[in-house]
Design a protein that fits this description.
This protein is an alpha+beta fold. It contains 4 helices and 6 strands. Strand 1 and strand 2 form a beta hairpin.
Length: 147
């Protein structure tokens, strides 16, 4: 697989498999020895850490949608700038469900090996997300508020 295929695979995983908590589909797209460099507590590790984070978000948020705002690929690297929107229906970082919708932007960098995701880095502003959930108002989080 080349750069266009890696980019298409990254977009598919982040817009269809992860928001739907399709663990088997995600696991099938991960390379042996996959490494997740997510900075969220408990997020760093192998495939198990990525799947645990995915399930944790699924338990806290319903109606998850991921919109790819920008996708850039160069060789074995793909960068995604995405906006996650969802409804807060479960506990998240100690905040009880509010039922409110929110939007937050994230950056993901993925490295592919032989057509499968070998490494994943993610940057998201969870502190701003927790503030928005704890003080529900019809506002977006972070850069999403600038739209």
């Amino acid at each position: 697989m080349g750069t266009p295929e890696n980019k298409a695979a990254a977009i598919a995983v982040h817009t269809r498999a992860i928001p739907g908590s399709h663990g088997d589909a995600v696991a099938a797209l991960l390379a042996p020895g996959f490494r997740n460099h997510d900075t969220s507590p408990g997020g760093e590790g192998g495939a198990e850490a990525l799947l645990a984070t995915m399930h944790w978000y699924d338990e806290a948020f319903e109606d998850q949608r991921v919109e790819v705002l920008h996708a850039v690929a160069d060789g074995d690297l793909v960068a995604l700038h995405v906006e996650l929107s969802a409804r807060h229906t479960g506990f998240f970082r100690g905040v009880a469900p509010t039922g409110h919708r929110f939007a937050v932007r994230e950056m993901h960098v993925l490295r592919f090996a032989e057509g499968r995701e070998a490494e994943h880095w993610c940057v998201r502003d969870e502190a701003a997300l927790v503030r928005a959930l704890a003080h529900p108002a019809p506002v977006a989080v972070g850069a999403a508020a600038a739209r």
